[in-house]
Model the fold of this input.
Amino acid sequence: MDLMANTLLSAGASPAMVHELQEIPDFTPRADALCVNVGTLSTEWLPAMMAAAEAEVRSGKPWVLDPVAAGATGFRLKACLELVGLRPTVIRGNGSEIIALSRASVGPTKGVDSSHESTDAMEAAKALAQASRCIVAVSGAIDIITDGQRVVGAQNGVAMMQKITATGCSVTALIAAFVAVDPLHAFEATASALSIFGIAGEIGMDMAKGPASLRMHLIDSLYGLDEATVLRRVNINRLP
Done:
């Protein structure tokens, strides 16, 4: 939650980290987008997640789902499938999470860490995007983004980012911020968020000595990004 909030602040967004059901009616109408992250899923928090997503759907505002460890337990998979049924604008997960959601069954996933490369999940992502009528993003060495028809790959970032807890959660939050700015072009906003977060990681890695210092420099680099740097370094390509 800490890294997600700092990522959003560094990018110029204004986060509110809310999980109390009674606060949803007050907070949700003020938000330009919603990010639902099931990382700390519990029976107490799930109703608030559902209520917030339902409120965003009613208001016509975008919302983004991060199905953390979706296939790790039956409870978690069922909750994620219920959330998918509320028509998120974007679903962002690792390869194992997207494959588990697409198959809608508990598979041999590795929890939060992915045992599948993003490219392994491409067909599952396309199928999920078509079935749920949303954009699906799969994080990996190449970040895959698809709406069920179009597929692009964002190839920015460094391997060390996988050694920092919550980088995946943070880029999902960043996607929500980008989609809030341009909800009519959610596909392009999703690809841009993934690429820009990766660029910040690349720049941060030039100064980092390991995961802890990369975490700090990642936030600083995201805060300091300018248009010229983004245009020079962005690496998004159409995939077959």
